[in-house]
Structure formats: C-alpha cells, structure tokens
C-alpha cells in the first residue's frame, strides 16, 4: 500500500505540484483518509519516504558501479554520472522550488545531495592520478558535471523537445566525456 500511495503522491504532484491535500490524495487512490493516515502520518512523511528511497537507491546504484571489478575506471565514471535517482519523474524544477518554499528541510536535504557527488569526485581524482582524465581543477569539473546533469530537472524542456530523460542523460555523459567534435574535427575548413 505504501508504494501505491507514493506513486499516487508523485502523480498528484504532476498536476497540482505539492499543493494538494491528503483528502485529494485519498480520493485519487480511492481509499479512506483513515487508510492513508495508517500508512503515512502526513505529506511530510510521504515526502521523506520519497526522498529516503531516492537517496538510498542512488547510493546503492553508485556503490554497485564503483564496486564492480569488471568495469574500467572510465566505464565507472561514465556509469556513475548517468545514475538517475529513483522517482526521477518526481524531481523537477517546479517541485524543487515548491519544496524550497514550503518544505525547507526536505529541500535542503535534496539540494545537498544533488550538489555533492563525493563518489564521482573520488573516481575523477583517481582518473587524474592515472592519467585517463585531464588534470584540470577538480572542483570546477564536478560543478560542470552536476550543473549539466541537473538539466534533467527541467521537465518542460524535455516535453517541448520530445526528448526522453534517459536518452538525454546518455547524451550529456557522452558530451561531458568525449566532447562535441567528431573525428573529422581537423578537416573543418577555416573561415
């Protein structure tokens, strides 16, 4: 039942943002408010469950990548950057702004995690030490990766341009790691 409630909560946010009542959520689910409150004591309780699940899954997926002995360091970097949070459909710029205004504790937690990627930093530092990553300012590199990855939070952009988020993440990682020039880059005529 809890998973069903969480999914209904996420669906409700698509239409109303976080500005809906527990009554409206119960109606969407076709259950009584009592049943809803037997599972979650408040909207904050549901938000915390979504955030906990997201962060735990994100950490788990990242750890699985880092601990995989079959992948090269380059593959680990690529796969770690591409990890999408669980409930990716929940997180978008509009919801984050509403969290910031109405649920500052939850926003702070999400914001901190979305802007602090210690695991990727360690992988990149190892990449610099081993020579597979250019020796550039690591803090700037992390910031570029984070800001570029956070583009996926702009759901409106993806809707307008008919781009799937998973497809965009793959493109973002490819551009970050290999750039935008083709192999014919040296064949471009000078203007």
Automatic annotation (TrEMBL):
Residues 21-40 bind DNA. It comes from Planococcus kocurii. Keywords: DNA-binding. Residues 1-58 form the HTH tetR-type domain. The keyword rRNA-binding does not apply. Pfam families: TetR_N. It comes from the Bacteria. This is Transcriptional regulator. InterPro entries: Homeodomain-like_sf, HTH-type_Tx_Regulator, HTH_TetR, Tet_transcr_reg_TetR-rel_C_sf.
């Amino acid at each position: 039942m809890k998973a069903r409630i969480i999914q209904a909560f996420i669906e409700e946010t698509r239409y109303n943002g976080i500005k809906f009542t527990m009554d409206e959520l119960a109606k969407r689910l076709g259950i009584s408010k009592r049943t809803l409150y037997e599972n979650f004591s408040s909207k904050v309780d549901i938000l915390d469950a979504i955030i906990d699940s997201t962060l735990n899954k994100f950490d788990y997926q990242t750890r699985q990548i880092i601990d995989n002995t079959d992948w090269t360091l380059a593959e680990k970097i690529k796969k770690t950057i591409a990890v999408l949070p669980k409930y990716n459909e929940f997180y978008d710029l509009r919801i984050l702004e509403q969290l910031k205004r109405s649920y500052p504790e939850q926003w702070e937690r999400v914001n901190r995690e979305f802007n602090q990627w210690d695991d990727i930093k360690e992988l990149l530092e190892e990449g610099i030490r081993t020579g597979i990553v250019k020796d550039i300012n690591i803090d700037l590199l992390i910031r570029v990766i984070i800001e570029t990855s956070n583009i996926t939070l702009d759901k409106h952009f993806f809707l307008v341009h008919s781009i799937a988020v998973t497809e965009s993440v793959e493109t973002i990682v490819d551009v970050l790691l290999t750039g935008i020039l083709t192999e014919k880059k040296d064949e471009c005529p000078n203007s």
